[in-house]
């Protein structure tokens, strides 16, 4: 991935983030975002495992005369 392909607006956003948080705090910020995403994904998997998925459709067992 080449940084030259980024638009000018992304460079401005990157500079603003560096100015707001400072270079020393950026690794901690990235680590915290990664942990948050990991927790969110595990909670979504847990929600699916708790039985909150759609129930299976029942088959029609009636016979026609």
The gyration radius over C-alpha positions equals 24 Å
Structural class: mainly alpha
Order of helices and strands: HH
Tally of strands: 0
Number of domains: 1
Tell me, briefly, the overall form: elongated
Distance between the termini: 67 Å
Task: Explain the overall architecture.
There is one protein chain. The chain has one domain (3-48). Helices cover 58% and strands 0% of the residues. The chain contains 2 helices and no strands. The longest helix has 24 residues, at 26-49. Pfam families: TatA_B_E. GO terms for molecular function: protein transmembrane transporter activity.
What attributes characterize this protein structure?
65 residues; mainly alpha; 2 helices
What is the element layout, followed by pairings?
Layout: H1 8-21, H2 26-49
Concise structural overview:
The chain is mostly helical and 65 residues long. The protein contains two helices and no strands.
């Amino acid at each position: 991935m080449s940084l030259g392909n980024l638009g000018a607006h992304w460079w401005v956003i990157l500079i603003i983030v560096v100015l707001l948080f400072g270079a020393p705090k950026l690794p901690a910020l990235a680590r915290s975002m990664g942990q948050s995403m990991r927790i969110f994904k595990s909670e979504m998997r847990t929600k699916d495992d708790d039985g909150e998925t759609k129930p299976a459709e029942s088959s029609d067992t009636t016979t026609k005369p």
